Amino acid sequence: xxxxxxxxxxxxxxxxxxxxxxxxxxxxxxxxxxxxxxxxxxxxxxxxxxxxxxxxxxxxxxxxxxxxxxxxxxxxxxxxxxxxxxxxxxxxxxxxxxxxxxxxxxxxxxxxxxxxxxxxxxxxxxxxxxxxxxxxxxxxxxxxxxxxxxxxxxxxxxxxxxxxxxxxxxxxxxxxxxxxxxxxxxxxxxxxxxxxxxxxxxxxxxxxxxxxxxxxxxxxxxxxxxxxxxxxxxxxxxxx
Length: 240
Hints:
Blueprint: H1 4-15, E1 44-49, E2 52-59, E3 62-65, E4 71-72, H2 75-87, E5 89-93, E6 117-122, E7 128-139, E8 147-153, E9 159-164, E10 191-194, E11 200-205, E12 213-215, H3 227-238
Antiparallel strand pairs: 1-2, 1-6, 2-3, 3-4, 5-9, 6-7, 7-8, 8-9, 10-11, 11-12
């Protein structure tokens, strides 16, 4: 059973409780007032930022990065983005004139190095739940992890100075889950490497439960140029 729906539903319920986030006074309401009740319906997140498209999607109950061959996404960062959007508060209306959007960092999502991020949330059926453009941001002076940023909602020309807790919108690699497997080196009983030309290398410890690993099949007159390479291979298998 997927854990995503109950987790997001629980977080949405937390959001609806009074005092769930202590933001500054002077708020004018939620940036996306309907999103909190639809978080459990979000099936994919499309982000266009700095000229790159990043697609986060639920696959077999887990978030993956589509452009990275469905590699597992950093679920905590996806949740932070979804909750950040659901909890973002409007502080002050800004310009409605598209010619002034660039000054707020809201126009360059397709440009390398640009500040704008277009974020679109979709349901499994493909319909759009919410779409927002995020622009320049700055940290608030009185609340940790909270920033102020400019935003556009859907096709509404009204821009807003907004406040909330949002992750950094980086390149697709920044959304990848790290350390899928943590394994003690003493548990490694062998490593087999296959080169693209078919050559096989076998690394085994001299004694199970002990390090370092050794390359099997070396002749008496052969030796490795650098033991670090073998040691590095073993280390990589402990932090996949």
